Amino acid sequence: MNAFLTNFSQRRRWAADQAISFLMQQGVEHPHVVSLAAGLVDPGSLPVAEAIEAARGVLSDDLRAQSTLQYGTTQGDQRLRQHLADYHNRLEQTSAPPADRRTSQDEIVCTTGSQQLLALLADALLDPGDICLVAAPTYFVFLGVLEGVGARTIALPADEHGLRMDALASELQRLESVGELSRVKLIYVVSEFENPTGISLSLERRAELVEIAKHWSQRRGGTIYVLEDAAYRELHYDSPPPPSVWSFDAAGDAVIHAGTFSKSFAPGLRVGFGLMPRELRDAINDLKGNQDFGSANFNQQLLAELLASGRFATHAEEVRAAYRIKRDAMLSAAAEFFSDLPGVSWVQPHGGLYVWMSLPPHIATGFDSPLFRRAVDVEQVMYVPGELCFGGPCEERQRNHMRLSFGVQPPDGIRLGIRRLSNAVRAIA
Ligand SMILES: Cc1ncc(COP(=O)(O)O)c(C=O)c1O
């Protein structure tokens, strides 16, 4: 024990008590629990053979091995960025309808997972008290990032087509009328199969979102950026998603597109990337230079190899097929064990890793609720309490939802978990 008190920074205090740590701890303390909480990918789907082959490729001759094992550059390996540009352009072209806008490797920054990009963007754009507009609910780890830089989040309603544009426009109007428009710097959307709801932003709303951001940037006299988090873009089980929000930003000055290979390939590689306007690229490179002057070069070379050989594309197909089965397993278990419970409903996702289940308003699902304790201690099943996924003031957060992940468990584990969860709900209701 240190003899003196540690005088932590304000930023450290803002980062305290993040829910993700509590969840991880629950997992460790209750190893027999069926976890429908973890956002991890299916262990059986991890591409071991592909990774070995790609590693052999990048280490095949001395010269190549030496450059792979050397430091890289802050912005990321040039060969990988070229492959990423081609890959991204292909996704835009094969979306329905195909988009016109194309990217180039100059526009791309490679990061350590897309999470690092999200954190760097928060650092680059947000001073304490600045505002980020988000959907209610949204990706809870990013809410923690925003809290960690002292930013304010305003949670706006979403429906089956994603974040509601009427609500966004009227909130910006309200903020202007109370003199707070200058504090708005960012609008965050998970465009594909939102974590936690599984809902995607509709094609019409993508175009509208860019228009609204540009209109209010003009009124504000400074850019309000749209951060499009496309972490689940590849995990579609029914039809490919529409063109990205980024593709509607013809001038290329308003939208940041964050992508990752964690969900579609292997989170252990920690390879993510961002497409962004020039001045933001410079800012991210400066901040990243201070942090790590480049993400793991070895992993970037590995991914470049996988994209070049076509092994990534084949693997992504396999992953979709595996998760489609698990999505269906969760939906049929929900129908089997929850249909007769009044006031219970759930979203039928077309992609991603989650089913969002809503209970009657009087049944709270939080860490300190009777339901969570019953689920973990008696029924041995765990979920993510929905309230973690709401930004804005604590007292306004909805407390009766659960995020259920079908990522890690095999189909019979999913069925078992859902059955146990329904027992827990019946015991509490
Ligand atoms: C919506 C969303 N964005 C970003 C991330 C970060 O992923 P990674 O850093 O592995 O790319 C996640 C991870 O679960 C996520 O769900």
Distance between the amino and carboxyl termini: 46 Å
* Structural class label: alpha/beta
Indicate the multimeric state: single chain
| CATH class label of the largest domain | Alpha Beta
Walk me through the structure.
The protein has 429 residues and is an alpha/beta fold. The chain folds into 2 domains: 18-39 and 314-428, Aspartate Aminotransferase, domain 1; 50-309, Aspartate Aminotransferase, domain 2 (3-Layer(aba) Sandwich). The chain has 14 helices and 14 strands. It has helices at 10-14, 19-29, 48-58, 62-69, 78-94, 113-125, 140-148, 165-177, 203-220, 278-291, 297-309, 311-338, 370-379, 411-428; strands at residues 34-35, 108-112, 131-136, 152-159, 162-163, 184-190, 225-229, 255-260, 271-275, 345-346, 354-358, 381-382, 384-385, 401-405. Strands 2-9-8-7-6-3-4-5 form an 8-stranded mixed β-sheet, with helices on both faces. Strands 10-11-14-13 form a 4-stranded antiparallel β-sheet, covered by helices on one side. A two-stranded parallel ribbon has the order 1-12. Strand 10 (345-346) and strand 11 (354-358) form a beta hairpin. Helix 13 packs across helix 14. The model has no long low-confidence stretch (mean pLDDT 95). The site of pyridoxal-5'-phosphate has 13 residues, from helix 6. Residues 39, 113-115, 139, 190, 195, 229, 231, 260, 262, 267, 272 line the site of pyridoxal-5'-phosphate (PLP).
